UniProtKB/TrEMBL annotation:
Residues 1-31 form the signal peptide. The chain crosses the membrane at residues 805-825. It is found in: Cell membrane. The gene is gb13049. The keyword Membrane applies. One of its GO terms (cellular component) is plasma membrane. Coiled coil: none annotated. GO terms for biological process: post-embryonic development. This is Leucine-rich repeat-containing N-terminal plant-type domain-containing protein. Its main location: membrane. InterPro entries: Leu-rich_rpt (IPR001611), Leu-rich_rpt_typical-subtyp (IPR003591), LRR_dom_sf (IPR032675), LRR_N_plant-typ (IPR013210), LRR_R13L4/SHOC2-like (IPR055414), RLP23-like (IPR046956). Residues 41-78 form the Leucine-rich repeat-containing N-terminal plant-type domain. Keywords: Cell membrane, Glycoprotein, Leucine-rich repeat, Membrane, Receptor, Repeat, Signal, Transmembrane, Transmembrane helix.
Length: 861
């Protein structure tokens, strides 16, 4: 029993074991009580004064009454000597924590015979670990894990020369610190040491301190900030290791030592989230990973491992959890995986594995619950009638090749929480059984396939939080009746849905994206009850009617795109009042008319305003200058990645910009309306502006002389208006300008020169202004140039240049894709995925964490 205790980690196990212990000790206490036994008075006093230090709202000390302290809950005395040998006030969570009220009394230092002290999961009011613990020289077991002690771990712990079990691990990184480890080798009997979460700061010789502990079975130094090389860890004294956890140090380097295969007692190996290099020890070496036949838990994810997975992996028959994700592993997935009949968790995602996975790889995996093969170059092929032996809760197969038929084996996966088969080359009808099999799912991602067919008229998905069917060929009407009370993100964009909008759509929360379909009708019947809708994208459908009124209840909305529809009427004055958090407003290509509401300027976060291609009239409100978010550059990286991307952005904006990019860009586009009057000079206060497009209106008067104050401007389009006068010389101050179009106005005089202008200058930018002169025009201002022929000659060529279109800025386009793509793909798929599911991050994470807990249970059994 004692030796088992030394291995005790899982809170559940602690509880179980304690329960057993308690049951047995209660009976022994009873026996002593009958024989007149009691506790030693001085020890009782020590316990009482210890108790007095705490607030105990959960009644942990409620049994601490009467003389016989040996019968108090959590206290145990030696049957032989009567001394208190065990004090167990540990817990499994914080729900019944005791809370330190004053300075911790050194009274328990009086419990000289104490062998076992557990104070885990309690609150010590951010005090330091008391030095007097170092005087409890009989301690075998010390557990202060998940407490809130702060500061330096005292070196006095080195006096506990009999200690076999030491657990100081904490969730809070950087709360505890070790500044000196010279005490560690003095604890030569240590079997288990867990210091996870403690900052090791500048200690680089931890390896040597650990190497000399000859009895070590458990070593857990996760999230300690270790950045040395693992290769110096020595096998000679660590032959008994059962558990090695060096995960989340982020800086641990070096190759996996070859001797790792010699650790034949090892059950648990977690080196994830480090910078390990090299390959996984395999056949060439005498002892390979395949000799670690007692390994239950193997996690090498998030490192820089290369090479292939050794075929010997098939020998590790005890494996329960295998996570090799996020490395640079290549080659086939060994068939041997299929023999690991105890495997519940298999994650190979985000590597460069290739080849075909067939049922042979899975035929014995009867316990498999979590499967992640995403983002490799794998093809998964099972024959049509194969019934898998497993039922998965998490299925992540993004970017595997599973098509062209819809994978029929999924039919049997009826207990799935998350299904991600995005971009899996499926070219088929979405079968009706799918909605039955996955009716209890939380997250469904079928995006980027070629799925066709219609959705059922009635759908009940009681748990669904994210439904992503985007970028497919789905058609027909949206389900008339969708029961999905938890639905956050409804992503149906880029399909071929037709028909009108069912009422539930408007009452969503999170993100609603119906863009690029053929939906019709208006939103007059649609109402929202005020759930926190963040993003609504209805772009490029055939919606009609007035500006949707249900948005009056969308008080949290930050993104709204109604572009490329047939909405009409005026832009309501309530926009700012009812959607005060709006940052991006896109009404482009509709039939809105009337004035732009002045109140728009109440939107303190609005940095992206695109109302182009409507029939809006009146003057450009000078109050736009009050849009606070446009007065400063967005983000620190404003011009780092952007100069190029804005060009793409302007180009792609029409239909397929990314929502991400709109977040970064400060833009006003009022083009192709019937605005009249002058450009308000106040507009030049919007110093964050990066793109200003006023083209194709009926604006007149001069270009404001202070336009050069818009220092961040990258794109300026004033073409097709009636602007007159000279081009202000301050235009040459626009150092980031990559697109300029002043064509078809009534400008005159000499074109200003300047470095950036020189770079981008082309005659097209000025065409249609008969009285302009100077480079790049042929006229050098020495003659009065009145030749209208110039325009006519070039009219056809120039007509294509209707607005500031980046084909005019070709120089930038090549570069920009590189930047743009890096930006998109630099993030890992996990982060990317989490970004999509955003608010549900915790749930997904918890799922992984739970798998680990489940494992711990087994491991510690
Ligand atoms: C925690 O310690 C602070 C002093 O550091 C003290 O003011 C406070 O009362 C303590 N809280 C409790 C609950 O004892
Ligand atoms: C490890 O971290 C310490 C403290 O941050 C630093 O002094 C040392 O140079 C780092 N070593 C390596 C190999 O990065
Ligand atoms: C193994 O432990 C012994 C005794 O603690 C020590 O002398 C020896 O140096 C250790 N071996 C290594 C490789 O550190
Ligand atoms: C590993 O085990 C093999 C075979 O038992 C032995 O030959 C080898 O010396 C061991 N390696 C180390 C580093 O102990
Ligand atoms: C290691 O595994 C290989 C087979 O993979 C086996 O031949 C060899 O005997 C094993 N060595 C030990 C020491 O178990
Ligand atoms: C598989 O797990 C079961 C139960 O957890 C255990 O009894 C059995 O020994 C394991 N099999 C192997 C090969 O480790
Ligand atoms: C949708 O289905 C639910 C459950 O079957 C039913 O209670 C509800 O009346 C239906 N709603 C509509 C609009 O048909
Ligand atoms: C706004 O929500 C309330 C109830 O929360 C509802 O009565 C009202 O009709 C909603 N208004 C719109 C325009 O959807
Ligand atoms: C935009 O659409 C075009 C064609 O429709 C496509 O080739 C391009 O990759 C898309 N761009 C983005 C950023 O999705
Ligand atoms: C200006 O252009 C005219 C005709 O194109 C030319 O004769 C004259 O030399 C030029 N003047 C200068 C200063 O380049
Ligand atoms: C251009 O014409 C104006 C009158 O139209 C005249 O005043 C000016 O001197 C002329 N400039 C040149 C350079 O011929």
């Amino acid at each position: 029993m004692t030796s088992r205790l030394l291995h005790c980690h899982g809170a559940v196990q602690i509880a179980l074991i304690l329960f057993v212990l308690q049951a047995s000790y209660v009976s022994s206490v009873r026996a002593r009580a009958i024989s007149g036994g009691g506790c030693i008075a001085s020890e009782r006093e020590a316990l009482i004064s210890f108790r007095e230090c705490f607030v105990d709202s959960a009644g942990r000390f409620s049994s601490w009454r009467g003389q016989d302290c040996c019968s108090w809950k959590g206290v145990r005395c030696s049957d032989r000597t009567g001394h208190v040998v065990k004090l167990d006030l540990g817990s499994q969570d914080y729900s019944d924590a005791i809370l330190l009220r004053h300075q911790l009394s050194s009274s328990i230092a009086g419990l000289r015979h104490l062998r076992y002290l557990d104070l885990s999961f309690n609150y010590f009011n951010f005090t330091r670990i008391p030095l007097f613990l170092g005087t409890l020289s009989n301690l075998r077991y010390l557990n202060l894990s998940q407490t809130d002690f702060l500061g330096i771990v005292p070196t006095q712990l080195g006096n506990l020369s009999r200690l076999q079990y030491l657990d100081l691990s904490i969730y809070c990184s950087n709360c505890l610190e070790v500044s000196d480890l010279s005490w560690l080798p003095r604890l030569s009997l240590l079997k288990s040491i867990e210091l996870s979460g403690i900052n090791f700061g500048s200690i680089s010789d931890w390896v040597h301190k650990v190497n000399v502990l000859p009895n070590l079975e458990i070593l857990s130094l996760s999230n300690c900030g270790l950045n040395s090389t693992i290769s110096t860890l020595s096998h000679s004294n660590l032959t008994n290791l059962e558990m090695l956890d060096l995960s989340y140090n982020h800086g641990l380097t070096g190759e996996l030592p070859v001797w790792i295969g010699n650790l034949t007692n090892l059950s648990y190996l977690d080196l994830s989230y480090n910078m390990l290099v090299g390959s996984i020890p395999s056949g060439i070496e005498k002892m390979t990973i395949g000799n670690m036949t007692s390994l239950i838990y193997l996690d090498l994810s998030q490192n820089n491992l290369v090479g292939s997975v050794p075929v010997e992996v098939g020998n590790m028959r005890s494996l329960d959890i295998l996570d090799l994700s996020q490395n640079m592993l290549v080659g086939d997935v060994p068939d041997g995986i299929g023999t690991l009949s105890n495997l519940t968790y298999l994650s190979l995602g985000l590597n460069n594995f290739s080849g075909v996975l067939s049922k042979e790889h899975f035929v014995n995996l009867v316990k498999l619950e979590y499967l992640d093969l995403s983002q490799n170059s794998l093809k998964i092929y099972f024959d049509e009638h194969w019934v898998p032996p497993f039922r998965l809760t998490g299925v992540y197969l993004r970017s595997c090749d599973m098509g062209p038929q819809f994978p029929s084996w999924l039919r049997w996966q009826t207990g799935t929480f998350t299904l991600d088969i995005s971009n899996t080359s499926i070219y088929d009808v979405l079968p009706h059984w799918f909605w039955v099999a996955f009716s209890n799912t939380y997250i469904l991602d079928l995006s980027i396939n070629q799925l066709s067919g219609a959705l059922p008229e009635k759908l009940e998905l009681p748990f669904i939080e994210v439904m992503d069917l985007s970028r497919n060929y789905l058609s027909g009407q949206l389900p008339a009746n969708l029961t999905a009370p938890n639905l956050g993100n409804l992503l149906l964009h880029n399909n071929r849905f037709t028909g009108t909008i069912p009422g539930y759509v408007c009452d969503g929360f999170g993100e609603i994206n119906l863009s690029n379909n053929q939906l019709t009708g208006d939103f007059s019947e649609c109402s929202a009850t005020g759930r926190p809708l963040i993003m609504v994208d209805l772009k490029n459908n055939n919606f009609s009617g007035e500006f949707p009124r249900f948005l009056q209840n969308a008080t949290e909305l930050s993104f709204l795109d109604l572009s490329h529809n047939k909405f009409s009427g005026s832009v309501p004055t309530w926009v700012a009042e009812k959607m005060p958090r709006l940052e991006v407003l896109i009404l482009r290509s509709n039939m809105f008319h009337g004035h732009l509401p002045k109140l728009l300027t109440g939107l303190v976060g609005l940095h992206y305003l695109d109302v182009a291609h409507n029939n809006l009239s009146g003057s450009v409100p000078s109050s736009l200058a009050r849009l606070r978010a446009m007065r400063f550059s967005k983000g620190g990286d404003a011009h780092n990645y952007s100069s190029d991307s804005i060009s793409t952005f302007v180009k792609d904006r029409e239909l397929n910009y990314t929502h991400e990019l709109t977040k970064k860009i400060v833009l006003i586009d009022l083009s192709s309306n019937v605005f009249t009057g002058y450009i308000p000079t106040e507009l030049c206060f919007l110093k964050g502006l990066r793109s200003l497009n006023l083209s194709k209106n009926q604006l007149s008067g001069p270009i404001p002389g202070n336009i050069g104050a818009l220092r961040g401007l990258e794109s300026l389009d004033l073409s097709y208006n009636y602007f007159n006068g000279e081009i202000p010389s301050s235009v040459s101050d626009l150092n980031f300008l990559s697109c300029l179009n002043l064509s078809y106005n009534d400008l005159s005089g000499r074109i200003p020169s300047g470095q950036q202008l020189q770079t981008i200058n082309g005659r097209y930018m000025y065409i249609g202004n008969s009285r302009l002169c100077g480079p790049p025009l042929l006229d050098n201002c020495t003659t009065n140039y009145t030749d209208q022929n110039f325009n006519q000659e070039h009219e056809s060529e120039m007509h294509a240049i209707s607005s500031c279109y980046p084909s005019l800025c070709t120089g930038f386009i090549l570069g920009l894709w590189a930047v743009f793509c890096t930006m998109l793909f630099k993030k890992t798929w996990r982060t990317a995925y989490f970004r999509i599911v955003d608010v549900f991050y915790d749930k997904v994470y918890a799922q992984v964490a739970i798998s680990k807990v489940v494992f711990m249970k087994k491991f510690l059994r």
